[in-house]
From TrEMBL:
It comes from Amycolatopsis decaplanina DSM 44594. This is Uncharacterized protein. It comes from the Bacteria.
């Protein structure tokens, strides 16, 4: 299965930031975008195109509040909602599928569903 990732321009348009190579891994295929949510809050979305994995971290005052990691990713995109842009992730495994949505406005919210098919 292919891992479809939205173009960099989509993130720039939605959040005003461009993805960068993720420094910790040292791998050019691992990309990260850091989205400032407020003065003390930041959303980190990291993805590995080759490994088909995505990690979503939400920090308040430099402390990790939410840390979600998913493998078998099929789609990572930005959706337009009334409240603002939403990071949407879809992933699949044998006999099941999942979807994670992360909004940053008006407040941070994460919805995660994992269902048998």
């Amino acid at each position: 299965m292919e891992f479809v990732v939205a173009e960099d321009e989509v993130r720039l348009s939605a959040f005003g930031v461009l993805p960068q190579a993720e420094k910790a891994s040292g791998d050019d295929w691992v990309r990260e975008v850091r989205v400032p949510v407020s003065v003390t809050e930041e959303l980190h979305v990291t993805w590995d195109v080759i490994g088909r994995s995505v990690r979503v971290r939400y920090e308040q005052s430099s402390k990790v509040v939410v840390d979600v990691y998913r493998e078998q990713a099929a789609l990572l995109t930005i959706e337009a909602h009334e409240t603002g842009p939403v990071v949407a992730l879809e992933y699949y495994a044998e006999g099941c599928r999942g979807r994670t949505c992360v909004q940053t406005q008006p407040t941070f919210a994460l919805q995660d569903n994992f269902l048998r098919t």
